[in-house]
Amino acid sequence: MLHGYTPPERFLPYLSWTAIDALEDRANTVIVLPAGAIEQHGPHLPCAVDSIVAAGVVGKAMSLLPDDVPAFALPPITYGKSDEHLHFPGTVTLTGELLLHTAIEIGESIYRAGFRKFVIVNAHGGQPQPLEMAARELRLRHGDFVIIVRSAWSVPHDESFIPDHERKLAMHAGHGETAILMALAPQTVRLDLAEANIPAPFPCPTLSSTRPAAAWCARDFGPSGVIGDPRGATLEQGEALLEQLGTQWAKAIGEVYRMDWPVREAVSWARSQYTGHIESCRRG
C-alpha cells in the first residue's frame, strides 16, 4: 500500500478532505515529508536506497510517536537531484530547480490546508541546498509558517561500530547505508557483491580535511559507485540504527509540535509573487 513504512493512521493522504478540515489544532499539527532519490549505490545496493531510508526512518518515527502528538507523514519525494550519479545506469534525476519548486509547491499545499509546521527529512546528501532554499522561500512568503529541513541522519545515533577511516572519508553506499538497508529492505541487499572503495584525502587539506571541497561526481572516486566500505555491515547494526534514528526523530517531531516560533510579516515581494501565481492559475 501507499503508506509504506508509515502506520496508516499517521498517513495524511488516507484522510478525506473533510477529515483534514475537521482536525483540531492544525496550526501545531506536524506534517513530515520524506525526501529521497533514485540513484546508483554500487553493485550491492538498490538504486532506491535514499528513498527507502527517508521513508523508513519517518515511518519508524511515526510508529513511535505518542498518541497525544498530532503528526502525519506525506508520501516521499522519490526522485531527487542526483546528477552527480548520472554516469551510472539506474540513476533517475531531477534538476535542482525542479526539486526546489516541487518542495515549494508541496509546502504551499500544506499551508493552504491550514498546517503551519512542516518538516522535511532528507536522505540524499546531494540535495540539501534546493530543499533549504525552498524552506527559506516559504518562510518569506508566510511569516507564520515553520519549515525545518534536516538530514535523516542528523539526529543523535551511535556509529561507533563504523571504523574511523570510513566515518571520515566514506559518504555513499558504505557501512551505515548498507546496514540500515538490511533492516528496511533485506531482499534488495547483495552483500556478496559488496566491495570497498575508500578514497584518498582531498589534496587541499586547508580547505577540506576529510571530504572533497571541490565539485565532484561519483565516477571521480572509481568505477564501482561505492565510496566507503560496506563489507562489515550486519542486520543487527541496521536494526539498531533504525531504532535510534526513529526514536530521535519521534522526539524531534514532538518538540516541533510543542515549539513556539515568532510570527513575522511576509516579505511583500514574495507574497505578491505567490498571489500573482495563484491568480494566473485561476485565470488559466
Account of the 3D structure:
Helix content is 38%, strand content 7%. It has eight helices and four strands, in the order H-E-H-E-H-E-H-E-H-H-H-H. The two termini are 35 Å apart.
Strand-helix topology:
Layout: H1 17-21, E1 30-35, H2 49-64, E2 71-73, H3 96-112, E3 117-122, H4 128-141, E4 146-151, H5 164-169, H6 175-184, H7 235-258, H8 268-283
Parallel strand pairs: 1-2, 1-3, 3-4
Helix pairs in contact: 2-6, 2-7, 3-4, 6-7
Task: List segments where confidence is low: pLDDT < 50 over at least 5 consecutive residues.
Answer: none
Strand tally is: 4
> Rg to the nearest angstrom?
20 Å
Look up the CATH topology.
Rossmann fold
Shape descriptor reads globular
Number of domains: 1
Question: How many distinct helices?
Answer: 8
What is the helix/strand order?
Answer: HEHEHEHEHHHH
CATH architecture: 3-Layer(aba) Sandwich
* Average pLDDT figure: 93
Q: Strand pairing plus helix content: what structural class?
A: alpha/beta
> What portion of the residues fall into strands of 2 or more residues?
5-15%
What would CATH call the homologous superfamily? Creatininase
Question: In percent, how helical is the residue content?
Answer: 25-40%
* Level-1 CATH class name: Alpha Beta
List keywords for this structure.
single chain; 284 residues; alpha/beta; Rossmann fold; 4-stranded parallel sheet; 8 helices; 7% strand; globular
Please give a quick description of this structure:
The protein has 284 residues and is α/β, with parallel strands linked by helices. 38% of the residues lie in helices and 7% in strands.
